[in-house]
Amino acid sequence: MHLNRSNLCWLVLALITVSYLVFWALLLGATAAYSTQDSWLQVLRSPEIRHATFLSLVTCSLAAGFALLLAVPVGYLMTRLEFRGKSWLDAALDIPIILPPLVVGLCLLIFFQTKIGKVIEMAVPFTYQVSGVVLAQFVVAAAFAIRTMRGTFQHLSARPEDVALTLGCTRFQALWHVALPAARRGMVAAFCIAWARSLGEFGPILVFAGATRMKTEVLPTTVWLELSVGNLEAAVAVSLFMVLLAVLVLVAVRATGEKV
Amino acid sequence: MIQLEQLAWKVSGRTILESVSVAIPANTYAVLMGPTGCGKTTLLEILCGLRQPTAGRVRLDGVDVTDLEPRERGIGYVPQDLALFPGLRVREQIGFAPKLRGLPPAEIESRVEHLAGQFGIAHLLNRLPDMLSGGEKQRVALARALAAQPRLLLLDEPLSALDESMRAEAVALLQRVQQEHALTVLHVTHSSSEAAALGTLHLRMVAGRLEAESRA
């Protein structure tokens, strides 16, 4: 192949991409090389870690589901409606993304000590509960899901919805019958991102829901608990297990998404 | 009959439409021409109710519809990109409006079959929009609009995506549809030949104003 300027440009861009992927491969390779067969067996046999795995799968799925339920209407509103102060609201929706995770946990903890928070806790207890794990995952994951849904609706023409309005739809019916079916791949992507984000969530969960074994312990908490007692091999094995789990679930969900 | 009275549309301090007034009698095929960006599509969107005019009124058959929602106006709208619903088969596209109105399935099916036969797309009923040619999409969009039994049909450059050989056929189809459904049509086009072939009332818009008007 003749190396003209255009080809050189692609070559440089490809090198940057490959370098980044190689860097990640080296990171994961080094981590994998550190773990032993015994530590993997220990992870698989440990009832605490099995419980943490189960709880992670359940809470991540719930948090991602709730995040999607919020992200669809918010994303649609922010895309289709022009109003004063929209840029401020847009910035406000990104706050959970830019806040340090520990601060999010602290905010949750303090909120549930206020009068409103206590009233809510009388109906559904959150602090140091499994529901608190879901809430801590949800508040951060929702911001990412909203970004994804907003991007999805921005890429979809509003024209079919306009036509639906002239054919007899209310705005809600246009959203339900036209926009949502067209946005289904974006919804799968938003769910995936929210799920992956929830799986990696640690700071807010530790502060707000605690790290009680067999109760509010999720996989990132396990890594921290194992590290804190000097069990590096188990921490590494759990970390790799999380990587494997995340890849498996995301591949499965994405494969489903390709079919919808 | 369409009556536009002193319609204006301004956005961010920029005037798109200014004092647009016109009366289009019932069962007329009106064509609207004008340079790109002069406000033709905006005018159609105001007629549909998709935009609220900054000033002025829209009357249909003597009824002021300016504050009515699009679904309450009885207007069929075919935009330039045709805007077929992604993921819905042709049968569902045409049956969309009848289904929304809660018609019995048998009646929906009969209306779909009738329109599909009229537009020569009966063999396409189970296809998705991605599997249709430009001409087929245009027919589906027209059938979908007519399934709602509108009094007025607004067409925004509906033939722009068709090649020359298909255009003559499409012009004949539009003439037939207008007569068979006794419709008042407002058709936006850039094509003088299309306007000459179809229009019984010719309108021209320049820089947000309706400047010339002639009757065929």
Write a brief caption for the model.
The complex is a heterodimer of chains A (260) and B (216). Chain A contains 14 helices and no strands.
Structure description:
The complex is a heterodimer of chains A (260) and B (216). Chain A contains 14 helices and no strands. Chain A has 260 residues and is mainly alpha-helical. Chain A has 2 domains: 1-34; 43-259, MetI-like fold, CATH 1.10.3720.10. In chain A, helix 11 (184-200) packs antiparallel against helix 14 (232-259). The radius of gyration of chain A is 22 Å and the shape is globular. The two termini of chain A are 39 Å apart. The model of chain A has no long low-confidence stretch (mean pLDDT 91). Chain B has a domain at 2-84 and 149-215: P-loop containing nucleotide triphosphate hydrolases (Rossmann fold, 3-Layer(aba) Sandwich). Chain B has helices spanning 40-48, 90-94, 96-100, 105-118, 134-146, 164-180, 192-198; strands spanning 2-11, 14-24, 29-33, 55-60, 63-64, 75-78, 152-156, 184-188, 201-206, 209-215. In chain B, strand 9 (201-206) and strand 10 form a beta hairpin. Helices cover 32% and strands 28% of the residues of chain B. Chain B starts with a strand and ends with a strand. Chain B is built from 7 helices and 10 strands. In chain B, the strands form 2 sheets. Chain B has a 6-stranded mixed beta sheet with strand order 6-7-8-3-9-10, with helices on both faces. Chain B has a 4-stranded antiparallel beta sheet with strand order 2-1-4-5, covered by helices on one side. Chain B is globular. With 216 residues, chain B is an alpha/beta fold. The interface between A and B is medium-sized, with 18 and 28 residues.
